[in-house]
Amino acid sequence: MSHETEETDLAIGQHLRPLLRYGMAGLLLAPGASKFLTYGTSVRFFESLGLPAPSILIPIVGALELGAAALFLIDRSARIAALVTVPIMVVAAGTAGPTWQNVGVLSAALVLIAFDTPEVRRYT
Prior knowledge:
This protein has 124 residues and is mainly α. The chain has one domain (3-122). The chain contains 6 helices and no strands. Helix 1 packs across helix 3 (54-74) and helix 4 packs antiparallel against helix 5. The longest helix is centred in the first third of the chain and has 35 residues, at 3-37. One of its GO terms (cellular component) is membrane. It is found in: Membrane. Keywords: Membrane, Transmembrane, Transmembrane helix. The chain crosses the membrane at residues 19-39, 51-73, 80-97.
């Protein structure tokens, strides 16, 4: 890879990373919180999708979504948060159907994983 290409990738990552982090945090906060605030409704919804043990799955997924959103907001371990988010969004798209939210978060997480390098983090 040429030096010019590396600089271009670094510049893209520097500008894109904060947008991805804040966007994903915003899209994860509401569903994460709603799993706790509307627990019964969430359990029934997961049951209708055929997911196993929804009463156990709801708090786990809710905690993971809220935890990932918090990590994105405070800019700590964003890559790990993105890695945790990917399987959640794949299951969401596969069971509830692809929506702009779950496909958007999935896409953003994959891009963040690709661009979240030490060089980019150093300048953002």
